[in-house]
Write a structure and sequence with these properties.
The chain is 9% helix and 46% strand. It is mainly beta. Strands 3-2-1-5-4 form a 5-stranded mixed beta sheet.
Length: 69
């Protein structure tokens, strides 16, 4: 945990940077994503270039991992 991940939503150009943190440190407004959230779970163990799909309330959202720091 504590990784900073740059992701790009499928069909978009904007890079989103999220930090994967513990469950009690999560703060979506600050781009801190819990390791037990759907996005956090999808990103853990992945590498640069991998594509992940996350089930969101509005439907499935796909991302490509641009970098992991």
């Amino acid at each position: 945990m504590g990784s900073e991940v740059e992701i790009i939503e499928a069909g978009q150009k904007k890079v989103l940077t999220v930090s994967i943190v513990g469950e009690f440190e999560a703060d979506p407004a600050s781009s801190k994503v819990s390791s037990v959230s759907p996005l956090g779970k999808a990103l853990i163990g992945r590498k640069k270039g991998d594509a992940v799909t996350v089930q969101a309330p509005a439907g499935a959202v796909s991302y490509t991992i641009k970098s992991i720091k």
